Each structure stands twice: as structure tokens, then as C-alpha cells.
Amino acid sequence: MAVTLLKSPLLILENFIGGEFIPCNKHIDSFEPSTGEVYCKVPDSGPQEVEAAVEAAKKAFPEWSSRSPEQRAQILNKLADLLEEQLLEFAQAESRDQGKTVTFAKNVDIPRSAYNFRYFASSVLHHTTDCSQMDHLGCLNYTIRCPVGVAGLISPWNLPLYLLTWKIAPAIATGNTVVAKPSEMTSVTAWMMCKLMQKAGVPPGVVNMVFGTGPRAGDALVAHPDVPLISFTGSTLTAQIITERCAPYCKKLSLELGGKNPAIIFADADLDKCIETTVRSSFSNQGEICLCTSRIYVERSIYQTFMEEFVAAARKWKTGVPSDPSNSNGALISKEHLAKVRSFVELARSEGGTVHCGEGVDPLHLPAANANGYFMPVTVISGLSDSSAVMQEEIFGPVTCVSTFDTEEEAVAKGNGVRYGLAATVWSQDVGKVHRMAKRLQAGLVWTNCWLVRDLNLPFGGMKNSGVGREGGKDSYHFFTEVKSVTIKY
Ligand code: NAD
């Protein structure tokens, strides 16, 4: 991997195919969100590059899949070690590429990426399969699990390396080979990781990285007949296209999609903890986490107190230059995304909503070098109807809306009143109430009195328009393997 800085200060990325860095003759501009400047050129790969990557992955499959889980686990652990050794370098690169703060990348993205390798290196050693007896017929039945083949992995821009490694680690731990396509907006850390793949001894062709846009590189991967499995994380709209493209081939599909996640706050909640966590759950990573809270329903009797304290706490969540450790948020991913997020705030205003802080209320004071960056202050809105697009659609930015409820029944109805069903948060000290809510809320993940506490042993995924299938722990093992039932007549 030559970090190509020749003649230009731009970083020029290359595809990683068959264990080698392969230059591409066409590129896409990649912008640095905190300055608005082009700083990197990403390969604009298409069917030809995808074909080469799939061929390399097919060639590597027989040898890699025949290794023992222990042998594969050793390499995954080595990758984790190497990532941890370069934690700061990776965190700085992720911040520059995505706009998030270095602190967030250092504490969340990169450690979790390393942990993804470590977790699956360990978990793949501990799965068991099923066995049943049919003595009356003289038969013993059992199941075996085999890797599927070449896995196509497509990831989004919000948690670039974190979500990419969440797919690569279980895919290769279970013996598959991989063609991955990271988001064209955030490809740098994936490209940096390819160098670590070489160092860790990942055999050529086991992990191939093809960079480019969704409609060209992504589509070529999804529609490739020799890629029987697609794991996709991204928007619901793209998932609908991918599902159609996969249908003729009956591919195995896992879809991790958008959310419009409610926080339901009962009057008996521990308000201090709740406010600190709900500010974090609404605005972490600029609100660009699929699990972020974007609708807050507060029991009417504590609404005034909640609003005063919540808005005051939100105002302390500072937005600014990503390398400054005193900032909690950096810049949004792109100019277009910033415009989209702002348009929701405008819509809220036009519908009579109150903007308590943030966009249009609290100006940001940025250094001149960042004047064209895609920054937006954290914004709290109230007074919207439940049917407003602002309350219904995923905004995926530092915007959260607050409303009220009077009864448990109403809280459930409001929480469930959108097409998404990814995550929900419930705040109450009544143990019965939190169990009832957890059961009735339509969400793949329900956190009570906390947020984003993740146990990787548990299934991760969404209901309704938030996804199809689950990954994590046993679910990843099941998704990335095919099960066979075997009957032995004795
Ligand atoms: P996106 O759907 O635009 O893109 C995601 C990936 O798909 C990118 O790599 C993109 O290049 C690729 N892609 C786009 N069109 C494609 C096509 N036609 N064929 C194949 N690939 C294609 O999503 P995004 O804007 O990058 O990410 C934000 C979305 O991701 C939000 O909706 C967010 O909620 C969701 N998300 C979900 C989870 C989860 O785990 N549920 C996690 C993170 C993000």
C-alpha cells in the first residue's frame, strides 16, 4: 500500500484484491466534513473490479474454509492486536473522514472494531450443533454447519470501521471469504485495515475490499451470481433495492436498517440519570447512530421539569472542531446530509413546533478553517403532531423531538406509531412496568434505564422497516453458515 501523496496532497485509495493493493483509474471525491474540502480520492469501482474480487474470494475459499476455527481465531486476534496498537492513528483517520470527534472514535469506533475481531475469534470456538435420537427407527440425527461461500458485505458511513468489522469478523471466523464494500463517503479506515490484513497473515483473497458507490460497486456485488450471501447495513430505501436485486438468486440476506427510536420516560424515572443518558442517546456521534433516540415521550406530570433540565443539558453538548476534546460533537457527514437534517428543523417550524435550542437558536462559533464544515448544533423540538414527518421519518442528525403521554397504553401506542422498529428506551423504577413495556414495544432492542449497553452475545437487529434478520453471537454464526441435517441409520 503506497500512501500516494505524489504531485498532490490528496490521499488516493486503492482496492484490495487477492491480498494486493490494486489502483483504480477512476475516482470519487471524498470530502473532509469538518472543512468541506476534498482530501481523498476513493476508487470508483464497477463490475470489473467486483468480478476480480469475487474471483479472488472464490479461489481463497477452499483453503480458508478447511482451516480449523482455532487457526482462524488466531488471525482474528492478531488483527485485533494490530488495530489496538494503532488505535490513535485509526481514530484520527476515522474522525477526519467521517466528521466525528477524535474522542468518540478513540473511545467507541476503534476499540469496538478491535473487539469485534476478538469477540468472534472467541465465540466461534464455543458454538454447538443439535443432536436428536430416533431409537425406535434406529436413527441418530444431528446438524452440521458449513460456511456459505463468498460473503458480500456492504456498510454505511456513520460508524465506518465498527460496522464493517461487525460483518467481516463473523464472516471469516466461520470460514467464509469476503468481498466488502464500505461507504464511498468513509473508506479510509477500511483501506488502512487492509494493510493490517497483510500483517496479520490473512491469506490473499480471504478479505477483498472494493471501494465505490452503491449503484455501481454495491450493485455489482449484490447482483453477482457467485455471492450467495449479502449482509447489508444502511437505509431502508437501499435495502428495498438490494432485496429486489437478490431475489432472482434466492440469496441469504441480513438487513440492518434505519430507526426512529423512542425514549419513554415515566414520572417515576431517576431524572438525573435519565437526562444525562437521553442527551447522550439523542446526540452521540452527531445523532448519526441508527440507535439514537429521536422521539422522547415524557409522562405529562413531569414534562415541564424534564424540558427545563433536558434543554439545559443539551446546550452543554458542545459542537465544534472534531480534534478538540472539549467538543462532544463534530461535523455531519456531508453538505447534502446537513441540508436534509436542517430541512426537518425548518419543517418543524413551519408546522408550529418550538425549537428550544440548536439550529437557528444557538449559533456555532467555529474557526475560519472550519467555516465551510458541515456543523450543526444539537436541536430539541417540541409541539409537533405524531403524524408530522419530523416525528415519523429518520432524520439521522442531532435533532430530537419531545412530546407527552398520560397512560402506559398511550406510551406504547406512541412508541409503536412509526414504520420503524429498531430500538426503544424505557425509563421507570417500576420493575413490572419496564417488563410490560419491553414486551409490548415493537423494537429489536429495548433498553431500560440505560442506552447502548451492548452484549455481543445477544441478537442485534430491527423489526418492521428497521430490518430483516439478526446478527450477533449465535445469530451471526447461524447467518454466516448453512445448516445441514444429517441422519445416520445404525
Ligand atoms: P445507504 O443505504 O445510502 O448506504 C449504505 C451502503 O449501501 C453504502 O455502502 C452504499 O454505497 C451502499 N449502497 C447504496 N446503494 C446501493 C445499491 N443500490 N446497491 C448496493 N449497495 C448500495 O445508507 P447510509 O446513508 O450510508 O447510512 C445511513 C443509514 O444506515 C441510516 O438509515 C441508518 O439508520 C442506517 N444504519 C443502520 C444500522 C443498523 O444496524 N440497523 C447501523 C448504522 C446505520
TrEMBL record:
GO terms for cellular component: cytoplasm. Pathway: Amino-acid degradation; L-kynurenine degradation. InterPro entries: Ald_DH/histidinol_DH (IPR016161), Ald_DH_C (IPR016163), Ald_DH_CS_CYS (IPR016160), Ald_DH_CS_GLU (IPR029510), Ald_DH_N (IPR016162), Aldehyde_DH_dom (IPR015590). One of its GO terms (molecular function) is retinal dehydrogenase (NAD+) activity. It catalyses: 2-aminomuconate 6-semialdehyde + NAD(+) + H2O = (2Z,4E)-2-aminomuconate + NADH + 2 H(+). Keywords: Cytoplasm, NAD, Oxidoreductase. It comes from the Eukaryota. One of its GO terms (biological process) is retinoic acid metabolic process. It is found in: Cytoplasm. Its EC number is 1.2.1.32. The keyword Metal-binding does not apply. Residues 26-486 form the Aldehyde dehydrogenase domain. The active site is at E256. Pfam families: Aldedh. PANTHER family: 2-AMINOMUCONIC SEMIALDEHYDE DEHYDROGENASE (PTHR43720). Catalyzes the NAD-dependent oxidation of 2-aminomuconic semialdehyde of the kynurenine metabolic pathway in L-tryptophan degradation. Belongs to the aldehyde dehydrogenase family. This is 2-aminomuconic semialdehyde dehydrogenase.
